[in-house]
Amino acid sequence: MRFPTLLACCLAVCMLAGNASAETRITIPEGSFEDTGDLPVIISGITAATGVSFELSYDKDTVRIESITASSEIPGSNVIPRIDNDAGYAKVAVTNTEGISAAESASLAVIRFTRVGSGEGTVTIQNPQWSDTQFVANNFDVVLDGNIVSLEIVTPAETAASSSSSGGSSSSSSASIATPTSERTVTPAVTATVPRATTVLPVSSNDTVETPPAVSPGTTTESTQPPVTPKAAPGFCMATVFTAGLSGIALLLYRRS
Q1: Do 71 and 40 form a contact (C-beta atoms < 8 A)?
Q2: What is the pLDDT of residues 2-32, one digit of tens each?
Q3: Which domain holds residue 116?
Q4: Which residues lie in Polar residues bias regions (predicted)?
């Protein structure tokens, strides 16, 4: 007699623990859009619910609701919305004859927003409830509101990445401007005078020596060479002396005769 009673108590405790651990949640994620965008209503921790109801409050100067439709993730659902964009308010009821079950996160409905103003706003979930198979209303354990983020808002990580990228590009560009390339670098020429052998060519009396043009003031020549002074070749001098001697001897012999 005691054993069946103990077993029944254990089963009751297990059922209560299971119900306590099944946390029900309803959330709307964060979204950002320029013109029109969809935000889902996500639920979890519900099994065989006959219906879900909730209210929405939003900034009418930022967005307006175009439609609220059933999500394909939970087949057989029927959405009954009542939307008042002038007041920034909507009331939604979702029914399903097959039961609404979402042990894990699943999209229950899809809200289509249209942006009517700049900035950001909050989509607040109010009075969310779900009904069980006995049509008893239950409150959700966790409720997380949604946010509509402005496109002009940039996260700090993106800002840092953008700043480092722009800073790197600007520093590289400034470095490229400040540092001349090797093609544009002009190295001053160093002129060194190296002694070298001079070749002397025979020059006749009728030959003229070309004098290099004079350099105007302010003009720098890359290399300067001294003008070549013509010198008589040694063979030429000996031949001249020998010829003069023979001419003198011949003249003396002619006079004696």
Answers
A1: yes
A2: 545 544 555 554 454 444 457 999 999 999 9
A3: 20-148
A4: 217-226
The set of residues, in sequence order, having a beta carbon less than 8 Å from that of 131 and lying 6+ positions away, is 49, 50, 51, 52, 137, 138
- Nearest by Cα to 56 from 151, 149, 127: 127
Quote the pTM value: 0.54
In a domain, 216, yes or no: no
- Alpha-carbon torsion (189, 195, 197, 200), positive or negative: positive
Q: Report the range of poorest mean pLDDT among 131-140, 155-164, 182-191.
A: 182-191
For residue 26, the domain's CATH number is 2.60.40.680
Q: How far apart are the first and last CA of the chain?
A: 186
Give the Cα separation of 232 and 148 in Å (integer). Answer: 104
CA distance 55 to 93: 9
Q: What element of type H or E holds 232?
A: none
